Structures are given as C-alpha cells and as structure tokens.
Amino acid sequence: MPPYYGPDEDSHTIFLERSFLAADFVSGVGYGIQLVLYLTCATFLWKSRKERRRSTFLLVYISLLLCVETIFEVAQSNTVQMIYVDNRNYPGGPWEYFLATQNLPINILFIASLFSLTFLSDLLVLWRCWVIWSAFGSNLYASLALVFPCFLLLASFALGVIWALQSSQPGLSLYSSLPIAFGTAYLAVSLGVNVVLTFLISMRLLYYRRKIVDSLPEGAGSDYVSLVTILVESASIYSTFALIFLITYALNHPINSVFLVVASAAQQIANYLIIYRLTQGRGWDGQTARLTRLTTLNFDLSLRPEISTSVGLEGTVFSQTEEGVMQEPASQVIKSHRSGEIKDKTSSLQALNSPRTTPHDKY
Is 341 exposed, middle or buried (CB count within 10 Å of its CB: 0-12, 13-18, 19+)? Predict the structure, then answer.
C-alpha cells in the first residue's frame, strides 16, 4: 500500500476545501460567460447611444456590474492563493486559516462585492417589473404591485449590511453561528424579493400571452410572449440556484460554497440576457403592450382567401399569407379595402420572424 501524503484533517474539512477550490473554478467559468455577454451588449448599446438615452444608462449599469464582478473574482482568486499557497502550513490547515482571517481587507472586499452584485441585480429586476406592469397603461397598478417588493428589497439591504459586517469581524466568518443566522435571513429575504418579482413578471406576461395568442397569426409577437421570454424577463434562473444555495448554506453543507458562486454568476448572466433582449428590440418597453388591445377587421378577401388579417387598435395590421407573417399600417389596409382593391405597395411588408420582405401582388 502506497504511503499517505494527504492532509491530517478529517473528511468533512477535506470536503470543505475541495468544494472551496471547485467554487473558484466555477466562478472563473461564470466570469468568462459574463465577459462575453458584456462585450456583446456593450457593442449594441454603444452604437445606439445617440438614438436612445436609455442605452447610455444601461451601458453604465453593465459596466458597473462588470467592475464589481471583477473585484469579486480578484478577491476570490487571491483568497484561494492565500489559503492554499501562501499559508499552506497554517496550524489546522487551509480551512482553519480561512476561518481565522475573515477580517482581512481582501475577505471584506469579497463579501462586500458579493452583496453589491446582489443588490444591483435586484434593482434591475425591480425596474423590469415596473416596465412590464406600467406598459399596460396604468402606473397606479404598477406602483401598487411593487410596494411589497420594495419593502423586501430595503429589508434585504439592511440585513445584507449586517451580514457583511458580522462576517468580517475578528474571530468570525461566513460560517460562524451569528453570521450564518444573519446570512440566512438576508438570503431568504433577497430570494423572496426575486421570487415575488418573478411571480409578478411571469403572471403579467402570461396574461399578455393569453390575450394575444388567439388574436394574431401564428408566430406574430412571439418574441414578447414566448416561454423563453418569461424565463428571461423574470430572471427565474437566478431564483432556482439561489434557493439551492440558501438551503445548503442554512444546513452548513460544504457544497454551499459552489452554489454561492453559481447563484451569483447566474444572477449576472440573467441580467445580461435581459439587457441583450433590449438591445435586440425584443425586450419589453412602454410601447410593447399596445399590441394587446386587439380587434379583428373582417375584409372581403374572397379574391385572396389565403390571406388572414388581424389588426391592433394602435395601428399595426398583421397578415398571414403563404409567405409568412407580415405587418403594415392599418390605415393603408383600410384605405385599400374601401377603394375595393389592394393597390401595389411602394414599400414591402416586413416579416416579423424573418428579415426577408415580401411585397403583395396586385389584384
């Protein structure tokens, strides 16, 4: 039997150290994904900054996110180096060194950056919830819907500050009994904010989906009501991993360090996906819900039975033809209908789900 060269620590502590090291690798992967998404979103936002004032704001926001995330990654990597390289012979092993040095500036920076990322991300989802609810024409309903989430967000901010301060006290750590108590409360409230906002966003989008699914041709407006849209806009990907982390952290299970960085990375990725949809013109804004006020105009299309038409009261007509789904101003269609013929169009009808344009035939 070969000699044993492993550490003189119990299996639980060894599992803790392995999980901590694995978390550093997972954190790096998540940072790489975020960097790619940041560059993609920043490129589109920079190009549209002159046409849309919101683009400048979002560009500043994602730049701030990336800066804080970079600080988090530097602190994470430096902590691993200090534990496993610089102080490998610390009495009790690397994990004991980590628990005993939570008051070091680098560890305080780690906790503060993690807390800041969570709070900034919660603000984005809160804003998206406001946009989606107010897009239906009533700021009053949107304000009432956000009263409870706002109170939860303020409570999570207060608990997060206490958690960060307690975790960085000499002799304490993230895994001491008092920080665990405050941390569990903070994470539970923070998760509650996301669950409530996810529910509000999902229910509103499902309501919108039900309103238009039978009114528009197949595929029309799908960018705004698909299940993928609901999952992205509600940032539900983060809520899932945050719940897993909360459970493992409250139970003080060693694997919680992995789910900590997974949840954090998932939260930032969800932010970038929301902003990416906005840069592509597929995210919700104040004009999107106008398509929900739909009616149907019954034209005499006996000469062209293969065309079915739906029209929004805001002035957009959707036509289902053999070539696909097209849109054009309702006034143009109505004028052509009243004259008894569909005239040649000087501009092509743009397909909703294809960049290809298809002109109508004269008849």
Answer: exposed
pTM of the model: 0.72
Backbone angles phi, psi at 309, to 5 degrees: -130, 135
**Cα angle at 196 between 195 and 198, to 5 degrees?**
65
CA distances from 230 to 270, 273, 284 (A): 12, 12, 11
Beta bridge partners of 294: 312
Report the C-alpha gap between 40 and 33 in whole angstroms. 11
What is the chain's length? Answer: 363
The string of DSSP codes covering 280-332 is TT-S--TTGGGGGSEE------TT-TT-EEEEETTSEEEEEETTEEEEEEHHH
Q: Which residues does 306 contact at the CB level (< 8 Å), separation at least 6?
A: 321, 322
Give the integer Cα–Cα distance in Å for 121 and 340.
Answer: 55
Q: What tokens does 350 get?
A: 């743009």
Cβ-defined contacts of 98-107 (< 8 Å, 24+): 98/20, 98/173, 99/173, 99/175, 99/176, 100/171, 100/173, 102/167, 102/168, 102/169, 102/170, 102/172, 102/173, 102/174, 103/168, 103/169, 103/170, 106/75, 106/78, 106/79, 106/82, 107/75, 107/79, 107/168
Token output for 71: 């600080």
pLDDT in tens, the chain (363 residues): 778 777 778 888 888 888 988 999 999 999 999 999 999 999 989 988 887 778 889 999 999 999 999 999 999 999 899 988 888 888 888 888 888 887 888 888 888 898 899 899 889 889 888 888 887 666 787 888 889 999 999 999 998 888 888 877 776 677 777 777 888 888 889 888 888 888 888 787 777 766 665 555 554 445 445 555 666 665 677 888 888 988 888 888 889 889 989 998 998 998 898 888 877 765 555 555 554 444 444 444 444 444 444 443 344 444 444 454 454 544 444 444 444 444 433 333 333 344 444 443 433
